Amino acid sequence: MFAARSAPRILNGARAFSTSPAHSLAKMQLIGRLADQPELTPTSTGREMVRYALGVKAGPKNENGERQTSWFRVASFSDGPGRDLLLSLPKGTLMYLEADARMDTFQGQDGNNQTRLNLIQRNFETLSRPQNRQNDAESDRSAAEEPSSGIGAS
């Protein structure tokens, strides 16, 4: 005969798949291309950070065969070899990014409150570097293009 299994008990309101309490989570994973070479900039506290923008193509193709590009501003506070690698990446590099996401509200120059999504880099991986380009116009158009095969392909 088969013994009946009892259902798992949930202790003290904890989630069934974890014994730890639920925490807030705002994390993004993106695959896109660098809009420009990352820059090292000082913060108001004197700490240095690397700032860059990542272009991500998504959605259906339009009549020109192109997808809409969303641009994300990213800040990195990493040090050492990771920072050196990030600073050496050229415009158009295809990257995988894991970042913490935060919505910040601030007062703009016109006096109105504005809200902006801020991404703080946690991890990144270089997927491919751009091919040598004949001219900058072609490079500008392809800065956020995804490869035709492999990760990020459509």
Automatic annotation (TrEMBL):
The keyword Magnesium does not apply. GO terms for molecular function: single-stranded DNA binding. Residues 135-144 have a biased composition (Basic and acidic residues). Residues 124-154 are annotated as: Disordered. Pfam families: SSB. Signal peptide: none annotated. Gene3D superfamilies: Nucleic acid-binding proteins. Residues 124-134 have a biased composition (Polar residues). PROSITE patterns: SSB (PS50935). Keywords: DNA-binding. The keyword Transcription does not apply. This is SsDNA binding protein. It comes from Aureobasidium pullulans (Black yeast).
